[in-house]
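The records we work with from here on pair a chain with its fold. These numbers are not coordinates but entries in a learned vocabulary of local backbone shapes. To see the layout at work, look at the sequence and tokens printed below:
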Amino acid sequence: MTLRGSALPDRSLLLRTLAPVLDTVSATAVAADVTAAYVWGVDLYPRGARPTRTRLHVSVPPGVSTAGAPVVAHREVLPPADTTVVEGVRITTPARTAADVAARAPSVFVATARLDGFLSRGLVTGDEMARSALAPRTRQRLRRLRSALSYSSALSQSPAESWARVLLLEAGLPPPVPQRPVATAEGLFHADLGWPSLGVALEYDSLEFHSSRESLARDRARYAAMRAEGWEVVSVGAHDLQRRPDRLVRRLLHTLVRRGWSCPPHRLRHVRRKIRAYAARPPLLAAPPEP
């Protein structure tokens, strides 16, 4: 099968590592979950972790022993349509892989970011994801997967953008447009999240990409150009999402209302309840490392 995503550095080594392990475990063993995601070009491992130095995720039918093998076993019977072969290695298809890693995610925030990773790389389509969601799953995992599917977007360019979008949608704020084009005198820019009817844009300032003086200067110039066209730019960072999401939602709520957004009283009560819930317990935005 031909890859549609971007190859990651350890992909070839991972495939060479997988082949003998799968053959040792069982003729029915299939690379799955985060291991399969890495092969497809979506890195879901913690920062700094290397997939060839962690236990490999494999799907095996119930009753197949994996004793002594360096694997995390997912015991399930996969239909033939959900598996393929990449360079001689049995592996779950992109759609099945995406559905699995989303359903097994620890929160809807992580689940949506994972789906967005597959969608934005052109590895899957919405229709393919919908079909893969029909696989048997526990009620909790099925509910999480369906929520993530409803929130997902192929336009998301980073996990943080996905987290921010889900944070706002879960809170009951109006749906934003990902990567909304904004024409300015300085050129065409794309807001990470935008509400064009209200002229509001949310921009995520990543520490990884926006820490240099040059990057910060470009950001300020872009924000100034957007503001000159009548847009109000709300800039947020990692701390806003991870530590004080309640303040972010409250800030954006006030901005949207000031710019003309109105909603029924019961919806406003829901938004305020979510703000209190976020303050009491910030959402889980990353999967815990494997033991």
Remarks:
- The beta strands are 30-31, 56-60, 71-75, 83-86, 89-92, 177-184, 187-195, 200-204, 232-236.
- The mean pLDDT is 91.
